[in-house]
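Objective 1.3, modelling of assemblies. Example input:
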Amino acid sequence: MSYKREEFLDKLRSGLNRLPADELENVLSYYNEIFLDAGEDREEETAENLGSIEDIIRQIYAENGIEPDGRPTYMVEELKQQQDNMQTPPQPPIYRGYTVKDQQPVNTSRLILLIVLFPLWLPLLIVSFVLTIVFFVVGFVIEIALIAGGVSLIVSGIIELFRIPPIGVISIGAGLMLCAVFGLSFRAVFKGSWKLFAAAINKLVNIAHNTFVGGEPVV
Amino acid sequence: MGFPISSGLLDAMVLSVVNRNDTYGYEITQLLRQAVDVSESTLYPVLRRLQKNGMLETYDREYMGRNRRYYRITDLGSSTLSNYRIEWKDHKAKVDSILKEEQAV
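Predicted structure (tokens):
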């Protein structure tokens, strides 16, 4: 299979659509230059020398810490690594092969461990999932109770104001306090449960990623 | 070629080529091809990594109505290259000491 320059670049562009724009631009101009420097009459040959576009795409995604399915992996870790790089002199690069397969082997021992421990982690998983949902529901119920109680106290306080004014004032005051608590806690409760939920999912995905794709390149 | 080339060695060779004089992607590959079997596709991540690690910098120069990206070695790149050269000499000597033909004792 061989592609001419335009065709090659088009395929590269659509295959690398999840790459950050500046990085994509860099890749495309590099390959465009290679074609032009090799000579317009040699486009077929050049494309052949460059090898499979799929391999190129896979490798560039790997180098940028993006999985082929588009999920950026370990952006936080990458950021940390960048900072580390700035602080410490660069280490000699890790020796590794050039195919993506070599870089990301399936971690067999961990996989087996996961399967063997299946009866242990599955219940744990379910329990943590249920707990997260319970937190969410309880938070929701408490918030509803707060706002409902607050509003009804204010309303009944206003009615009471005309019969026994001191009790009416106390009632309105208590109602306002409940509403205030609602207002203050509303975001925290929902954000908190959502964060908990997201963290749990993230953790799971990370474990799966480490097991099936492999976290570090093999030395 | 029978011996696979490692990432570190490739980095060293690219640094060495750019160290001679500023050059561009296609020319780097052509020079490396005299010694090892690499393609421009293999070289792209290497060049990008060396750039990100601050060992190479780039600048664009016009060539026949289009841009050509030139690579220039940085101070960090030069000192890394010196280290690579020392390491390679050491490595080569060790491999040679094992690979040499037996001598009658």
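The helical segments of chain B are 7-20, 25-33, 40-52, 75-99.
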